[in-house]
Fold this sequence. Notes:
With about 325 residues, the chain is α/β, with parallel strands linked by helices. About 55% of the residues lie in helices and about 10% in strands.
Amino acid sequence: MNDSIAGQVLLAAPDQQLVAGVLARQPRALAKAITLAESTRRDHQARAEQVLAALLPHTGKAIRVGISGAPGAGKSTFIEVLGLHLIECGHRVAVLAVDPSSTLSGGSILGDKTRMEKLSTHPNAFIRPSPSGGSLGGVAEKTREAMLVCEAAGFDVIIVETVGVGQSETTVAGMVDAFVLLQLPNAGDDLQAIKKGIVELADLVVINKADIDPRAAASARQHFEGALSLLRSASAAWRPTVLTLSALTGEGVANFWQEIERHRTTLEASGELAAKRRRQAIDWMWTLIDGELRNRFRHHEGVRQDLEKVSRCVTAGSMTPAAAAHRLLGHLQND
Ligand code: GDP
């Protein structure tokens, strides 16, 4: 970034300590910095922004992997066995979750620590449940920030888990290097994902629970390979692949990671990884701008006074939506 606009990071003493603690890989500092970033208080947000700016030069070195799949597909079993395998290979693994429904259901996909019993207590692992940010945008924003804090704390593999509902897959695919879709070998399950357009996002499709019925798993694999061959790949260098494995027995897990490494090497060699991350950073900036503008609009005094009346006119058919939007947005110009 251009130094003249990057600005100087001036931190208060406690925040300097926090940054130093994160860089020294202290678990308490890591958790505290993420809590600060997740806070909705304005003063906390201002501090978090400074802390993140100070941490930024120490980020970006991790492999970022998104894992999605319907409830019951085996995500937590898979992440536990994968995480332990990676730690054995010398990695440090952070697992974050994006689950916008957690605010409604009261429980997050990672809220229950027993889901990854061994991994959650391992000193080289860090597991963070989904922030309860309300909207998907809010949750995703906090998760991106948590990802940067984890990278600054020396985690070299970041796994972002999400459930196979709504828009969360698209959002997670937009913050990782490799997006993985975890599927069951049932007939019909593959059709769901293809219909919902999630397969287009996948760099890797994993058919889990292959131990139950290896033939069904092999047939599901063929289905997906067929479906993927019809899609235009988002990458010029990488063609999405399909693997079968068993998270329960661990068979195929090492092979899975080799495939993730091959994906990374391929994208690095073609220059696509750097381009992808640059694009993601710009998209993130715009997401934040959109969110803040919407926020200011909704809280604007003139808009608040006029909104109900204008909405009534639109529902009654006496004003077009375009005219209504024009009029409401006009309030912002009157400042
Ligand atoms: P999640 O909801 O996607 O996180 O799924 P879980 O990891 O909680 O798994 C759901 C159920 O499937 C649990 O009872 C797991 O023990 C089981 N399971 C997960 N992976 C496998 C597998 O590879 N083979 C078999 N047979 N069962 C599995």
